[in-house]
Amino acid sequence: MKAAERIRRQARLLSLSEAVAEYVRDGDVVAMEGFTHLIPFAAGHEVIRQGKRDLTLVRMTPDLIYDQLIGMGCARKLIFSWGGNPGVGSLHRFRDAVEHGWPRPLDLEEHSHAGMAQAYAAGAAGLPCAILRGYQGTDLARVNPNVRFIDCPFTGERLAAIPALRPDVAVIHAQRADRRGNVLIEGIVGVQKEVVLAAARAVVTVEEVVDDLRASGPNAVVLPSWTVDAIVEAPGGARPSYAHGYYGRDNAFYTAWDGISRDREAFLAWMREHVLRSGGGVRVPGSA
Amino acid sequence: MKAAERIRRQARLLSLSEAVAEYVRDGDVVAMEGFTHLIPFAAGHEVIRQGKRDLTLVRMTPDLIYDQLIGMGCARKLIFSWGGNPGVGSLHRFRDAVEHGWPRPLDLEEHSHAGMAQAYAAGAAGLPCAILRGYQGTDLARVNPNVRFIDCPFTGERLAAIPALRPDVAVIHAQRADRRGNVLIEGIVGVQKEVVLAAARAVVTVEEVVDDLRASGPNAVVLPSWTVDAIVEAPGGARPSYAHGYYGRDNAFYTAWDGISRDREAFLAWMREHVLRSGGGVRVPGSA
Amino acid sequence: MGAVADCSPSEMMIVAAARALSNDDVCFVGIGLPSAACNLARLTHAPEVTLIYESGTIETRPHVLPLSIGDPELCQTALTTVPVPEMFAYWLQGGRITVGFLAAAQIDRFGNINTTVIGSYGRPTVRLPGAGGAPEIASHCRQVFVIVSQTPRTFVPQVDFITSFGHGTGGDHRQRLGIRTAGPTLVVTDLAVLRPDPETRELVVTSLHPGVRREEVAAQTGWPVRFAPTVEETPPPSAHELAVLRDLVARSTPAAAPS
Amino acid sequence: MGAVADCSPSEMMIVAAARALSNDDVCFVGIGLPSAACNLARLTHAPEVTLIYESGTIETRPHVLPLSIGDPELCQTALTTVPVPEMFAYWLQGGRITVGFLAAAQIDRFGNINTTVIGSYGRPTVRLPGAGGAPEIASHCRQVFVIVSQTPRTFVPQVDFITSFGHGTGGDHRQRLGIRTAGPTLVVTDLAVLRPDPETRELVVTSLHPGVRREEVAAQTGWPVRFAPTVEETPPPSAHELAVLRDLVARSTPAAAPS
Questions:
Q1: Does the distance separating the beta carbons of D81 and A188 come in below 8 Å?
Q2: For A4-29, what is each residue's pLDDT tens digit?
Q3: Do A60 and A33 form a contact (C-beta atoms < 8 A)?
Q4: Interval B33-54 mean pLDDT
Q5: Interface membership of A114 toward D (CB under 8 Å)
Q6: Chain B contacts of A186, Cβ < 8 Å?
Q7: Is it the case that residue C253 has pLDDT exceeding 90?
Q8: Looking at residue B278, what is its pLDDT?
């Protein structure tokens, strides 16, 4: 009868520092997801403040959040599928780590979006691997031993296979949670449901904790409280990315980041000023 | 540049008889889906009235709609995963066909819900097969040659594989379509999106055609007009099943069907009275 | 004995089954008797039990018993409703369910369940509805509870067709097939409670309902049924359990209410 | 020639690319130049073109050019927004897209695209962003259009890394890999339009933008580029095309607007 305890979570309302301290551990495989929308920057900054080390960071689009974690030396490995500053250019801290090993070398496991999205889905679905028609003719299959091929047992067609992604901990940001800990995600929902269900532990920061979730219709994207470990109220916690229905994307800051992150010292100075010295971890320039 | 024409559909607003005459053909593999909710009875009755023959009927839960099609001799084969009258008992016309070959023998391809749902998803996803952890130890795998097993190329775990379902034509019922032909489905959405995307042709009956789809939120289940061939306005077209937001399930009729369908003559008399002689095809007892 | 006298064997069965659920359970609910037992639990000692129906309705709180697995009541009272492929992939196969609650047409001494055919598959004497979600419910839920009336027709030495794999031929058969879950750990009937022997996994009687004698159970079982070293007596339904069950049945469609 | 004189090569490139789309197309849109071209098409001759971005936004009609693939504008103006795994499985891999519109860091004479590394993968001189959706866009869309500025650095004999497979080593290489789609059928640059030779699949110049000479194109191509038997002159942007493009750029974030 106690089987329940092994697989049923129960969301607790915690502070950001409590949640990160308890659920993000040195050496973890950590997936902070959010496809352009609802990127959990506040949580990422708290991970930096707490000086987590040797993380394997998993994210389809590393974005500024992982550029910052990589630049601050939190990561030993990155599993990803597109590592740029969207519409702006390079992630300079990511490039510096890959090209010059600063502040430390960064192992890469590289996929396509299609492969990585299905790998998360396979993790959520309790499958050991995902299959897709993909990677045909690409060098990704050559450099990534985690891209293999199988034959369809009915047609003989060659299909790509990728191991399921099952992070130690998933971290996402959502619009709302109710007091029981149920979570609502709206807009560009990305792979957030998949990463939470695939991970052993799940931390969700939200814009607000409310009495009524105000889900739009019976098929809204809702994560039940028993699929989440920690709920953290972190208004603005997705800035400089955005929260549909709450605030817009700070495109000016994404553009400014190119200059801030190009130089190691300028980057470190910015992080000291805006992340390390900040308590809440949600203060980001241009997010006023 | 004309590649478009081969894969892009454009929904046309047709009458029920026009849509069935044009898109449902003798010998077709036909999937009329709707998981308890939004079962396309009006369309099924029109298929019977037009005397379609040699159909391979595909449906997770054959329900009364396929009991009627089977009893009227439209089907030569059934691909399914649960063939009962929900909460009531047997589908007597289905049983009569399987047990006594009346009115004609019925070939069976039988799956579990999990297998069949993933087979539809694989069809929608353009994959030749679906993989799942399923069928372990069951006799279904013994009697169905379309259940095979593969080994995960990473863990070696044995996984079941099923061929993708790709019907010739999908028929579903939905709440609304707008005048461009975009379709909204709400409530228990079942496998309707999957079957429409998996099928070569798609017919959608709706409660009403409206100017504004009134989708609830950005993530509502919507089928774009270019994924559908025909839209048919058929109010009440899901009775005696139901349409969330429009009318409830006629549980009394589902219960009464047990008596109506038990006897061949009583069944035929009912079909003559309520389906064959009915124009609109949406008149079902107890649905007042 | 008062409470017993005026409760039916079916009521005793549903009450005994309901008691096996706790607030910590996430339960995948079959239609009919399982649905009655699960909602009775929710309306009595386990108000926080999470009920999921394969139609995609998650954390549903029906006011009346549904006739079908997808009645409007289930969606209207659910926390959320997901597509059916997601339900089976992310929620069931994903290993998020603690208890699968099933009925059966036939169950054998090792807890294998048949809902497909009586007789041979090719030429069945009775064609039953088939598998539905049961095969994967039986393999993916941490444990499986079965609720079924006990007769020699339903309790057979070996099922005609294994729709849902229980303990196979017993022992470690599940593990040998790579199945990681416990399988049937509890079978509640209108006469008794049976559980698998820890070693052989054969279903043995661990509790008799009030007023039921061993001979009756033996007579209603298609194999020489064994009894646990200590056989308990099932506590009779409390007045409260009975009242809640009868209210629930009374406000549900006759067809949906177990007789 | 008037229109040409006061339009930039970049504007000519975007206009020429936009013209390749029709109302019948369902287009999977890359960010940057492809997004500018696709929305120009939608705002001029192809108001019914269906635009899809990999963030899950289907049939979107942004009023301004998005900076990222998931800007709020895209979701707010979309018919519907689906999860990312569904986007890649049901919509892209499902074969529902007629045109994939891509940019490139390097493209070679057979239309293979590199957005991963300059130099060796293990020790790159420049680490580029990587694949994103491009590998499967290149294999699943019925055809692929590429828009890229033409320089010897971008137009190389052979890409350092095949991120997205074009025509491989030419001929029937795609078919030999079991890829059923046409691959790159059109490459639009700031100087010219190139298309694959029907036999060899080598990219050849089929149209020169107004005022561009063959020598300039040859000088900006990293291999001895060939010209089609008849090379046309790209019709210059109309006043309307130019006005709409400049309005679109003017109302978009500077960073999102191609210079």
A1: yes
A2: 444 678 899 999 999 999 999 999 99
A3: yes
A4: 98
A5: yes
A6: 217-219
A7: no
A8: 73
Please list the pLDDT of chain D residue by residue as tens digits (259 residues): 344 458 999 999 999 999 999 999 999 999 999 999 999 999 999 999 999 999 999 999 999 999 999 999 999 999 999 999 999 999 999 999 999 999 999 999 999 999 999 999 999 999 999 999 999 999 999 999 999 999 999 999 999 999 999 999 999 999 999 999 999 999 999 999 999 999 999 999 999 999 999 999 999 999 999 999 999 999 999 999 999 999 999 999 777 766 5
Task: Produce one character per residue of B9-21: b if its CB has 16 or more CB atoms within 10 Å, e if not.
Answer: bebeebebeebbe
* Nearest residue to A253 via CA among C229, D67, C218: D67
A192 touches chain C (CB under 8 A): no
For the beta sheet containing C50-53, the strands, ordered from the edge strand earlier in sequence to the opposite edge, are C80-81, C57-58, C50-53, C26-29, C99-102, C143-147, C184-188, C192-196, C203-208, C226-233
Q: Which residue out of C52, C98, C181 would a mutagenesis test of the A interface target, given it has the greatest number of A Cβ atoms within 10 Å?
A: C98
**Neighbouring C-beta atoms of residue B246, cutoff 10 Å:** 16
Calculate how close chain A gets to C87, using CA atoms only, in Å: 9
B216 in D contact zone (CB under 8 Å): no
- Detail the DSSP E strand segments found in chain A: 12-13, 29-32, 55-58, 75-80, 84-85, 89-90, 107-110, 129-132, 148-151, 158-163, 169-178, 183-185, 201-210, 221-223, 230-233
Does C139 contact B136 at a Cβ distance shorter than 8 Å? Answer: yes
C-alpha to C-alpha distance for B117 and C88, rounded to whole angstroms: 8
B288 close contact with D: CB closer than 8 A: no
C216 as an active site residue: the answer is no
pLDDT tens, C145-185?
999 999 999 999 999 999 999 999 999 999 999 999 999 99
Q: What is the DSSP string of A155-193?
A: T--EEEEEEPP--SEEEEEEEEEETT--EEE-SS-TTHH
**B99 vs C68, C88, C127: nearest CB:** C127
Residue length, chain C? 259
Angstroms from C2 CA to nearest CA on chain A: 30
Q: Which residues pair with A87 in a beta bridge?
A: none
User: pLDDT band at B113, cuts 50/70/90?
Assistant: very high
> What is residue C6's predicted lDDT score, i.e. its pLDDT?
84
Q: What share of chain B is helix, strand, coil (3-state, %, to 5)?
A: 30, 25, 45
Q: How far apart are CA C225 and CA C246, in angstroms?
A: 32
Question: What is the structure's pLDDT at D21?
Answer: 98
What's at D20, amino acid-wise? Answer: A
> Are the CB atoms for C142 and C182 separated by under 8 Å?
yes
Cα separation, C10 vs C103, whole angstroms: 13
CB < 8 Å to C74, chain B = 188
**What are B34's two structure tokens?**
């709707």
Q: In whole angstroms, give the CA distance from residue A34 to residue A219.
A: 20
Q: What is the pLDDT at residue D214? A: 98
Contact by Cβ (8 Å): D46, D25: yes
pLDDT at D258: 66
Output the six-digit token pair for C113: 């369940």
Residue D184 near residue D118, CB atoms below 8 Å: no
Whether A276 and chain C come into contact, CB under 8 Å, resolves to: no
CA–CA dist C39, C21 (Å, integer): 10
**Contact yes or no for D117/D161 (Cβ under 8 A):** yes
Please write the tens of the pLDDT for every residue from A214-225: 998 999 999 999
CA distance A11 to D173: 53
Token duo for residue D12: 């000519």
Q: How far is the C-alpha of A142 from the C-alpha of D125, rounded, in Å?
A: 19
Pick from B90, B134, B187: CB nearest C135: B134
Q: What pLDDT, in 10s, does the model give residues C178-189?
A: 999 999 999 999
